[in-house]
Amino acid sequence: MEILKMQTIITQRKYSQEETFVAKTWHDGPVKTASIDEIPTLPQSGWMPVGSVEFCRAAMIHQGIHTPEPVDYPNCLQSFMPEKAALYHWGQAQEIMVNKTGQRWHVKPWQTKLEEDLWVFDTRVWLMPWHDFVAEHRVYVCAGELLGLGRYDDGEDDPVWNLEAINQMIQIYQDSGFAPAGYGLDIGVSAIDGKTYLVEINDGWALGFYKGTCSPWNYLKLLQARWVEMAGILAVIK
After folding, report:
1. N or C, where is the chain less crowded by C-beta within 10 Å?
2. Is 230 helix (H, G, I), strand (E, B) or coil?
3. Where are the beta strands (DSSP E) in 158-236?
4. What's the number of CA atoms in the CB half-sphere (13 Å) around residue 156?
């Protein structure tokens, strides 16, 4: 897949996450900084944002890019999850959780990073039984290629990953035709049976960078691939 080498990256002002540092250090083109409020003053094409979900979403709106639907739990990968995820309205989910006492739950809004204080009865949420993991990593994937892993939990042990299962997830997702050009495949080693499971998918348009085996350059390539895909631009990187 040919990917645009973006001429300019705009990082979010006062956003101190690792991905901002990577963009400023490793991008070999111009890197500028702006706040969310300054986005309307920027050009309407030709640049890529690096920052929070809110910052990147504002950049999409300004550039006329349609915000993709969330990709958290693809149907084709449900068999790789320890528990099936189901979509409910928040009001329905609350009833289910109340009626099943003693069960721990994982609840996640369908809309990416929607703050809980904004949830109302009709807010769509994913609901599934809680599962304990001894370790969780993000697998960075670009155009179906595994670029590396980065650990995002607080553990320090050395888990045994099932690389075959990880590659199967990537291949099945790629073959489904629904995989973004760049994304994070979050995986966990179960505290119950030691198997490697899918935790969730994170879209590559606002993806955190965790230190590990994915190089900063490959991380930027992933972000660029996804942004180019969404913007519908064809160009080449070196």
Report:
1. C
2. helix
3. 182-190, 196-203
4. 0
Q: Which tokens belong to 220?
A: 């930027």
Of 61, 161, 72, nearest to 112 by C-alpha is 72
pLDDT digits (tens, 9 = 90+) for 54-87: 999 999 999 999 889 999 999 999 999 999 999 9
Helix (H, G, I), strand (E, B) or coil at 36: helix
* 221 sits in which H/E element: helix 216-231
pLDDT digits (tens, 9 = 90+) for 125-155: 999 999 999 999 999 999 999 999 999 988 7
The owner of tokens 């995002």 is: 152
What pLDDT sits at residue 201?
A: 97
Distance CA 95, CA 99 (A): 6
Sequence-ordered alpha helix ranges (H) in 64-212: 90-99, 163-176
Inform me whether the pLDDT recorded for 157 exceeds 70.
Answer: yes
Backbone angles phi, psi at 80, to 5 degrees: -90, 0
The token duo for 168 is 């199967």
Residue 196 pairs with which residues in a beta bridge?
A: 189
What's the full length of the chain, in residues?
238
For the chain, what percentages of helix, strand and coil (3-state, to nearest 5) are there?
35, 25, 40
Residues 10/50, Cβ–Cβ less than 8 Å: yes
What six digits make up the tokens of 193?
A: 């049976």
Q: Comparing 155 with 174, which gets the higher pLDDT? A: 174
To the nearest whole percent, how much of the chain has pLDDT over 70? 95
